[in-house]
Amino acid sequence: MGSRKVAAVFLALVIGFTSGMVLNVKTSHAKTVYRDGFSYGKITKSIKKRINGVSYKKNKYITYGDLRYVKVKYYNYRGKEKEGELIVNKLIAKDIVEIFYELYEIKYPIRRIRLVDEYDADDNKSMAADNTSSFNYRIIAGSKNSLSMHALGLALDINPKINPCVGGAHGIVPPNGKPYAQRDASKCSGKYADKMIHKNDEAYKIFKKHGFFWGGEWDNMKDYQHFYKVAGKYKKIGRYEW
Ligand SMILES: [Zn+2]
Q: In 10 A of CB 30, how many CB atoms?
C-alpha cells in the first residue's frame, strides 16, 4: 500500500469512526421509547426553560442530568384516553414508563398528569387539582429543611385529591380531599370513592412489583397518594419514610 493509499484508508477509518461516534452520541441523547406514547429522555433546553426557577431550583443535590422527562398515556376519570408528562429521577425513569403502561393497559383512572410547573410548582394547588406528578424541588410540607423525595424525583403523588395525606401536621392535605379521608369506599361520600388507592389493589401491586413503597402504609401518618423508591446513591441516605 502506497503512503497515499494508507492515508486514504486512515482518513476513511477516521471518518467512519467519527460518524459512528456521532451516531452513538445522538443515540444516547435520544429519548427511549418504551411503547407508543410512553417514552423518557434527557431534560432538553425547552423543558429547562419551562421548569428553571419553578420546579427546578439551583441546589447541590440534584442536577438536570439526574432527571428525565417522561411522556405517558392514561385514561381519565371519564375513561377518555389522554397524554401526560412527568419529570422523574433517571434511576426510576424506566420503572415509571413500565408502571404507567401497566396502569394504561388496565385503564386505571387518573385525573390528570401535568408538570407541577403548570401550578407554579405549588404543591397545594397541584394536589387540589387532583394532579398526578413527581419532581418538585421542595422541602417536606410543614418541615423546616427536610428535603422531600419529590425534590429528588423519586416520589410520585397519584390522584392526590382522592388519595389525601391524612394525620400529618396539616391535617388532611389537600383540604378539598377531606371526604376521601374516609377510606372505606362504602362509607366515603366522595364522588370518586371507587377510584381510591387501597392496599393490594391493582395500582398498589404494580408499584410494589417495581420496588416502590406506599405512604398509605406508614404508621404515623397516611400519605395515600405517595409512592416512592429509594434507589442508587440515595440508598445511603437511609431514610425510607420521606
Ligand atoms: Zn408525595
A: 11
Is 18 among the domain residues? Answer: no
Ligand 1 centroid distance, CA of 9 (Å): 58
Q: Which residue has the higher pLDDT, 148 or 155?
A: 155
Please give the distance, rounded to the nearest whole angstrom, from the Cα atom of residue 23 to the centre of ligand 1: 39
Q: Which domain holds residue 63?
A: 26-237
Is-contact 124 174, C-beta < 8 A? yes
> What distance in angstroms lies between residue 42's CA and the mean position of ligand 1's atoms?
23
Measured CA to CA, the distance from residue 85 to residue 81 in angstroms comes to: 14
Global pTM?
Answer: 0.85
CA of 58 to the centre of ligand 1 (A): 21
The number of folded domains in the chain is: 1
> Residue 20 domain-assigned?
no
